[in-house]
């Protein structure tokens, strides 16, 4: 049967905040836009973002985009590109107002202005008093934004391909991206979407680790497509871990639990944080607490049959305090850990939360394919959101800046695509060889017979990533980890599907996702192995200090031969003075 | 939404629709589908299919957030979902 084809001005892969905000700009400009999403759009992971969006509106306390910029540069541990950060902090303000006008129900002050709450890492006057910069829609900000953008896109006649899985990008010999091959999950039929421009907005990749707070859909699909297209990923070693996820499951147990007086214990009942952080104890910074937990487990003081986690004790707070101040935690623990924290401690382990790295782009969302900082962008290919790296988060991300990143850069990529399509109004000829290559990726899963199952290899892979490329990173174990992941990649060819049906074949979709996870996982493991310093979320006990002289640079990883290259940080902002690197003290 | 009889028996489709934007719901709904869905009376199967159409924060509040639904039928379904073994 002939391959079905559709043509659009723009193809957007992913329907979270970045994809939908870009789609809305384009559809409002009367471009023909297709949005492909493997789940129904309002079930994208943006829905899980509860915190809010940073923008220096100064509605509650004095504020200024320049102060926001300072906080973001400092939070990035000086690895963020200061031109992109300036741009994001300036554009935050019109982006939030545009969302307001589109109908996002932000929480309000009595005077009618958007309410803004204070969050860690926000300061007035370049490191002074606490600022209040985060705009929220109660505790459902992500949902409110996603729902509003989806509704607006329906009004603007964006064409949605719901429950379609993106297989691979289609490119021609000159490097132009011509669209993508996608798979209709409901029918198992492939579809070729040709487009003048393609935006990758496929979100994060937390599922590379065994313990993650990310939804099951976060499998790094767009990142892996970029790798297979011969393009690099940037700064993949920078992964934010939250110290307390439910052990073996990953759901977040908020810092508020320790703020209320909860504390961590090992198998001997010892309050071990007293040893690692005598003053701050359980309220030490996220990375310190996460590393301390791992150290306890590695030294044999872990709890449980596998001695692979520690415990978070809260029962001393009493049922009334837990019921009043931590109601969600009690429910979550009962369901996912099988313990009632009123009676027993909660089993916890660091959980992978957010990837700072991703597909390298400039501040207009254009994909930058080389280590040459002044090099050309890739014609017609854009990326925005967690899958992209602009780079505004550098080595660590501030709270409230992730929703901001996806919304600002989704919007700006949309604007840039409008200009590109004006100048490139014709579709280029389809490259049949590239289509065949993408089709072969699908067809190889038709192989029948005995083999490893998808879930077997996935479990082994995710455990390997957690043990060898997670929070605790020392040379010897990382070298071993890279080798193990390479072997897992080899064994992917031995995986066989247990289901070969066409309709809603989750086994096949999960196999395609596993391939993506492994490719992206290797980019993390290899990039982390070679960065011999500690900066932001990347912590190397064997190289405990930040080394600005040798490592003030971005890592670029290519899949072919696991090649690495580096490019300098863009320390020069657009209109203001550069913030020089300083020791980060909060 | 109109629910057809065939919607109740298409387990693979339901499995994909248990893929949500929140990890908590992924884990809970997928485990519920495996462990309990097949044993439900048609009335509750229909209700589960209906539940999957609700926004994630609503399902989360009902199942995990300690804010159970007021509707008696949904309440019955949610309490079965909450008994699912995921640990």
What does it look like?
The complex is a heterodimer of chains A (586) and B (87). With 586 residues, chain A is α/β, with parallel strands linked by helices. Chain A is built from 16 helices and 19 strands. In chain A, the strands form 5 sheets. In chain A, strands 1, 2, 6, 7, 8, 9 and 16 form a 7-stranded mixed beta sheet that branches. A 4-stranded antiparallel beta sheet of chain A has the order 11-14-13-12. In chain A, strands 3-5-4 form a 3-stranded antiparallel beta sheet. In chain A, a hairpin with a 5-residue loop joins strand 8 and strand 9. Chain A is globular and about 65 Å long. Chain A starts with a strand and ends in an 18-residue tail after the last strand. In chain A, 56% of the residues are buried. Chain B has 87 residues and is mainly alpha-helical. Chain B has a single domain (8-82), classed as Flavinator of succinate dehydrogenase (DNA polymerase, domain 1), CATH 1.10.150.250. The radius of gyration of chain B is 12 Å and the shape is globular. The termini of chain B are far apart. Classes of the chains: A alpha/beta (586), B mainly alpha (87). Chain A binds chain B through residues 38-40, 42-48, 140, 142-143, 147, 163, 185-186, 212-217, 249-251, 327-328, 330-332, 335-338, 501, 503-506, 509, and chain B through 10, 12-13, 15-17, 19-28, 55-57, 63-66, 82, 84-87.
């Amino acid at each position: 049967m002939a391959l079905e084809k559709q043509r659009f001005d723009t193809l957007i892969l992913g329907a979270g905040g970045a994809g939908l905000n870009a789609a809305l700009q384009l559809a409002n400009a009367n471009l023909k836009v297709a949005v492909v999403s493997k789940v129904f759009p309002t079930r994208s992971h943006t829905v899980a973002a509860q915190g809010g969006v940073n923008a220096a509106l100064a509605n509650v306390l004095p504020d200024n985009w320049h102060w926001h910029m300072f906080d973001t540069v400092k939070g990035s541990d000086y690895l963020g590109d200061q031109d992109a950060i300036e741009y994001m902090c300036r554009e935050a303000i019109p982006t939030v107002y545009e969302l307001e006008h589109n109908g996002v129900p932000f929480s309000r002050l009595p005077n009618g202005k958007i309410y803004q709450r204070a969050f860690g890492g926000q300061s007035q006057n370049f490191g002074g008093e606490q600022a209040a910069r985060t705009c929220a829609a109660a505790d459902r900000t992500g949902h409110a934004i996603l729902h509003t953008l989806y509704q607006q896109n329906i009004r603007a006649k964006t064409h949605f391909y719901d429950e379609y899985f993106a297989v691979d990008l289609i490119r021609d010999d000159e490097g132009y991206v011509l669209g993508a091959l996608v798979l209709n999950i409901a029918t198992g039929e492939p579809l070729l979407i040709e487009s003048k421009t393609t935006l990758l907005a496929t979100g994060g990749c937390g599922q590379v680790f065994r313990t993650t707070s990310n939804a099951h859909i976060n499998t790094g699909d767009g990142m892996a497509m970029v790798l297979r297209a011969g393009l690099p990923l940037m700064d993949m070693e920078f992964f934010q871990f939250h110290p307390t996820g439910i052990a073996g499951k990953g759901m977040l147990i908020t810092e508020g639990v320790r703020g209320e007086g909860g504390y961590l214990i090992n198998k001997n009942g010892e309050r071990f944080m007293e040893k690692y952080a005598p003053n701050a104890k359980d309220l030490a910074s996220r990375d310190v607490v996460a590393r301390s937990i791992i150290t306890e487990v590695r030294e044999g003081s872990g709890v449980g049959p596998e001695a692979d986690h520690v415990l978070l004790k809260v029962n001393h707070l009493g049922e009334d305090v837990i019921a009043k101040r931590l109601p969600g935690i009690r429910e979550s623990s009962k369901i996912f850990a099988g313990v009632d924290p009123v009676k027993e401690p909660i089993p916890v382990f660091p959980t992978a939360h957010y990837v700072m790295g991703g597909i390298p782009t400039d501040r207009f969302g254009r994909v930058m394919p080389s280590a040459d900082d002044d090099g050309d962008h890739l014609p017609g290919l854009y990326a925005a959101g967690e899958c992209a790296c602009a780079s505004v988060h550098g080595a660590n991300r501030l709270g409230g800046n992730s929703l901001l990143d996806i919304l600002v850069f989704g919007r700006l990529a949309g604007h840039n695509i409008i200009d590109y399509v004006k100048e490139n109004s014709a579709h280029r000829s389809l490259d049949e060889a590239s289509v065949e290559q993408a089709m072969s990726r699908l067809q190889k899963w038709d192989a029948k017979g005995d083999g490893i199952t998808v879930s077997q290899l996935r479990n082994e892979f995710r455990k390997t990533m957690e043990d060898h490329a997670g929070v605790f990173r020392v040379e010897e174990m990382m070298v071993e980890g890279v080798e193990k992941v390479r072997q897992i990649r080899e064994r992917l060819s031995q995986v066989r599907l247990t289901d070969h049906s066409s309709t809603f074949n989750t086994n096949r979709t999960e196999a395609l996702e596993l391939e993506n996870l492994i490719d992206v996982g290797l980019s993390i493991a290899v990039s982390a192995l070679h960065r011999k310093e500690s900066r932001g979320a990347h912590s190397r006990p064997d190289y405990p200090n930040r080394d600005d002289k040798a490592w003030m640079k971005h890592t670029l990883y290519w899949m072919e031969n696991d090649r690495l290259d580096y490019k300098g940080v863009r320390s020069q902002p657009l209109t203001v003075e550069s913030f020089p690197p300083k020791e980060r003290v909060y | 939404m109109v629910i057809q009889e065939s919607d109740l028996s298409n387990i693979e489709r339901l499995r994909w629709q248990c893929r949500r934007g929140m990890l908590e719901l992924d884990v809970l709904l997928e485990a519920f589908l495996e462990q309990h869905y097949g044993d439900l009376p048609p009335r509750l199967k229909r209700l589960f299919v209906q539940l999957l159409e609700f926004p994630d924060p609503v399902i989360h509040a009902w199942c995990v957030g300690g804010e159970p639904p007021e509707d008696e039928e949904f309440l019955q379904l949610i309490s079965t979902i909450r008994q699912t073994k995921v640990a």
